[in-house]
Amino acid sequence: MSILDTPIARLDGASGTLRDLTGGKPALLVNVASRCGLTPQYTALEALHEEQADNGFTVVGLPCNQFGGQEPGTSEEIQEFCSTTYGVTFPMSEKIEVNGPGRHAVYQALVETADEGGETGDIRWNFEKFVIDADGTPVARFSPQVTPDDERVLDAVRGTLR
User: Fold this and answer.
1) Is the distance from CB of 25 to CB of 58 less than 8 angstroms?
2) What is the number of domains present in the chain?
3) At what angle do helices 151-160 and 41-52 cross, to 10 degrees?
4) What is the three-state SS of the chain?
5) CA dist., res. 59 & res. 25, Å (int)
6) Residue 1: pLDDT above 90?
7) Least enclosed by CB within 10 Å: which of 49, 89, 94, 100?
8) Contact (CB, 8 A) for 97 and 91
9) Of 36, 47, 139, 154, catalytic
10) Which domain range does residue 7 map to?
11) Is 80 exceeded by the pLDDT of residue 162?
12) pLDDT tens digits, one per residue of 23-74
């Protein structure tokens, strides 16, 4: 089974799979939070989504409240904040857990991917990024401090495009 077949609801509560969120396209998966020092990365995430949409690529936000309680809002509050503050149009999932015994199945698969330093395992903080190809195979992992417009991220994204 592909990671894309993993059940996960949209932020609006509609049931579906990761494939529904990605549209079956290569994607950048990011655990996001609205009250984090890294929250301004939403600007670059949206720009990447807009710039690469015509090339068959999308960004998917996966809200998580496990790091300092920095995503405490309801789904409606998260949606409102993202759309009005950052103009977010990319798809977002329901709020999920990325670590611990409640870790969502999407992240069960992702945490085995090594980052540039060879580190695997638990998500370290908000805005950790994974590039997946159209088949759902993780091809790159980036630390929260690596911004979505960093050339390393862009190279990984370009590598997934047809």
Assistant:
1) yes
2) 1
3) 30
4) CCHHHCECCECCCCCCEHHHHHCCCCEEEEEECCCCCCCCHHHHHHHHHHHHHHHCCEEEEEECCCCCCCCCCCHHHHHHHHHHHHCCCCCEECCCCCCCCCCCHHHHHHCCCCCCCCCCCCCCCCCCEEEECCCCCEEEEECCCCCCCCHHHHHHHHHHCC
5) 10
6) no
7) 100
8) no
9) 36
10) 3-160
11) no
12) 999 999 999 999 999 999 999 999 999 999 999 999 999 999 999 999 999 9
| CATH code at position 7 | 3.40.30.10
Q: What is the mean pLDDT of residues 152-157?
A: 97
Q: What is the pLDDT of residues 116-141, one digit of tens each?
A: 999 999 999 999 999 999 999 999 99
Q: What is the pTM of this model?
A: 0.97
**Residue 159: how many CA atoms within 13 Å on its side-chain side?**
13
The two three-digit tokens of residue 55, written as one number: 């090339």
Report the chain's mean pLDDT, rounded to a whole number: 96
Amino acid identity for residue 41 in this structure: Q
Check: CB of residue 139 under 8 Å from CB of residue 33.
no
Query: Residue 127: left if φ>0, alpha if ψ -120 to 50, beta else—which one?
Result: left
Residue type at position 113: T
